[in-house]
Amino acid sequence: MRKKLRFRKIHLRVSRAGALFIAFTLTTGVVAVNSGNNLLFILVAALLSLLSLSGILAYLNIHGLDVSLRAPGEVFAGRPVTVRLELTNRKGRLPSFLLTCEGDRGGEVITELRPNETMSLKVRTTFSRRGRQPLEEMVLTSEFPFGLVRRGGSFSPDSTCIVYPEPKPVTWEFVEEAEREGEDLSSPLAGVGGDYRGQRDYVPGDSLSRVQWKGWLRHRRLMTKEFESEGASPVVFSYASVPGPGREERLSQLSWLVKTAFRRGRAVGLVLPDRTFPPAAGTLHRTAVLTALALFGADDADAKNQPLLQ
Predict the structure, then answer these.
(1) What confidence score (pLDDT) does residue 184 get?
(2) Same structural domain, 196 and 244
(3) Least confident piece of the model among 83-97, 109-123, 222-236
(4) Which of 104, 119, 157, 304 lies 20 to 30 Å (CA to CA) from residue 134?
(5) pLDDT at 86 over 60
(6) What tens digit of pLDDT does each residue of 116-155 get?
(7) Both 134 and 171 in a single domain?
(8) Dist CA 306 CA 275 (whole Å)
(9) Residue-range definition of the domain harbouring residue 306
(10) How far is the C-alpha of 66 from the C-alpha of 83, rounded, in Å?
(11) Is the domain of 142 the same as that of 27?
């Protein structure tokens, strides 16, 4: 959601060139007062006017901006992630120049943002804990117009992000135990190449080689033959089976097991003290399982189906 950019704290940092400029202006002013030279007074007045003009232009440069955030698909605690920050210049005629947005791990620079134009910046940040966490404060600054002073401020995105537990590896004996439990608790998934599973109504896109043509002659309806999948057996990971020792350690180990199993193309089930996920595959199931680990023990556990960024 796009909103007006409001700074919570103003940032001013004089550059090396700015420090030399201020030192030269002060030195010239002292010499002008001691000598009474009118040309030096004019020079000091011009330098001060230039510094004032720099402040006015800098204010106009960072004024009138809207900001919105887009979080990445998956966020794990302790792992650097890239948050996409979108800036929109809503000033009627004036462009903005040299905009820099920084997180705790650096950022990028927009050279020019034209009126009514929207551009994005990639900001690196890290979350230290799992759960629904607020996005860290970010800093937007600019050296425009003369590079003498970097002006800007810090702002809070006022958004939250679902952070999954930090993955911590465990020994493979727990994977073997999960495979045995998965074979006992789950039924074979539909696929190709395995044993005959049964029939269902034909839907567009089914392979013609699996259409039961005799059904059309007998019942005037097309049926499709289904076979069991020959893929790897599903796995079921249990909160009680991982070594721990504490709750956060167990959740981190389960996060690693779940992430590894999905990467290997397995159907994954999860047994927590308060809920159970039967073995399944797919992006939605992966998100639901990892979100349950992220919000385990939290007051807002019922928000598991909420979007990542709010």
Answers:
(1) 46
(2) no
(3) 222-236
(4) 119
(5) yes
(6) 898 888 888 888 899 998 887 788 889 999 889 999 888 8
(7) no
(8) 18
(9) 164-188+233-310
(10) 16
(11) yes
pLDDT averaged over every residue in the chain = 80
**Does 22 have pLDDT greater than 90?**
yes
One domain, residues 209 and 240: no
Tokens of 6: 């409001």
CB neighbour list of residue 175: distance below 8 Å, 6 or more residues apart: 235, 257, 260, 261
User: Residue 128 has what pLDDT?
Assistant: 86
Q: What is the 3-state secondary structure (H, E, C) of the chain?
A: CCEECCCCEEEEEECHHHHHHHHHHHHHHHHHHHHCCHHHHHHHHHHHHHHHHHHHHHHHHHCCEEEEEECCCCCECCCCEEEEEEEEECCCCCCEEEEEEEECCEEEEEEEECCCCEEEEEEEECCCCCEEEECCCEEEEECCCCCCEEEEEEECCCCEEEEECCCCCCCCHHHHHHHHHHHHHCCCCEEEEEEEEEEEECCCCCCHHHEEHHHHHHHCCCEEEEEEECCCCCEEEECCCCCCCCHHHHHHHHHHHHHHHHHCCCCEEEECCCCEEEEECCHHHHHHHHHHHHCCCCCCHHHCCCCCEC
Q: Report the range of poorest mean pLDDT among 12-16, 78-82, 100-104, 215-219.
A: 215-219
Query: For 125, what's the count of Cα atoms within 13 Å in the CB-facing half-sphere?
Result: 27
Q: Please state the φ and ψ torsions of residue 70, each to the nearest 5 degrees.
A: -130, 115
Q: How far is CA 24 from CA 19, 57, 145, 192, 279, in A?
A: 9, 22, 19, 80, 72
Token digits for 210?
């699996």
Do residues 142 and 150 make contact, with C-beta atoms less than 8 angstroms apart? yes
Q: Find where tokens 């009118």 sit.
A: 38
Q: What is the pTM of this model?
A: 0.64
Neighbours of 97 (CB within 10 A): 17
Instruction: Name the band, by pLDDT with cuts 50, 70 and 90, for residue 267.
Output: confident
Look at residue 192 in the predicted model and tell me its pLDDT: 47
CA 281 – CA 272 distance, rounded (Å): 18
